[in-house]
Amino acid sequence: MARVVLFNKPYGVICQFSPSAGKKTLKDFVPIPDIYPAGRLDTDSEGLLILTDDGALQNTISHPAWKWSKSYWVQVENVPDEAALATLRKGVDLRDFVTAPAIVNPIAEPPGLWARTPPIRVRQNIPTSWLDIEIAEGKNRQIRRTTAAAGLPTLRLIRHRVGHWALAGLDPGQYRLLAAGELRLW
In 10 A of CB 62, how many CB atoms? Predict the structure, then answer.
């Protein structure tokens, strides 16, 4: 039976188990042998990372052809107007590809959100706001690139859901091995 681990990746952690000079990696937090990330999160992104020892499951979760939805809480500079939201929702031309449409909703700051270390930069004259963005692609730095293209630079990015698995109950740096009954894919 596949082993599946939910991990709340802190800011600054590299999504690999091999050592990286001066950087924390998954090995510093998850002492389970022979598991690997199903997808990645950039070093400056936080939140839910799925790890597994099942190569087929790893491919199913991370490959865009399977269209697993991934949801993110995104703190951005500025307050989005309807035009910016429409841009994000319809898909954004990033020159090297056009993103698929996304589900995008303005939200309040997520309740119970932990402080980030280091804190985000704050500019006195530029407000910030939060968006909940759901995509089924996950190309390199896609959320950051699309929000920037819409005039909403990303300040903080937290993945809170992959498929039906959610971040709930995991503090940064904590992980949980799923029980057999939790392994259903959809």
Answer: 17
Q: How much is the average pLDDT of 134-150?
A: 92
pTM of the full structure: 0.94
Q: Is residue 42 annotated as part of the catalytic site, yes or no?
A: yes
Compute the radius of gyration of the chain from its Cα atoms: 17
CA-to-CA distance for 40 and 173, rounded, in angstroms?
A: 15
For 110-129, the pLDDT digits (tens) are 999 999 989 998 888 899 99
Q: How many residues does the chain have?
A: 186
Which one from 28, 42, 44, 132 is the annotated catalytic residue? 42
Residue 74's CB is within 10 A of a number of other CB atoms, namely 25
Fold observed for domain 1-66+165-179: Alpha-Beta Plaits (3.30.70)
CATH superfamily, with its number, for domain 69-162: Alpha-L RNA-binding motif (3.30.70.1560)
Q: How far apart are CA 17 and CA 4, in angstroms?
A: 16
Amino acid at 82: E
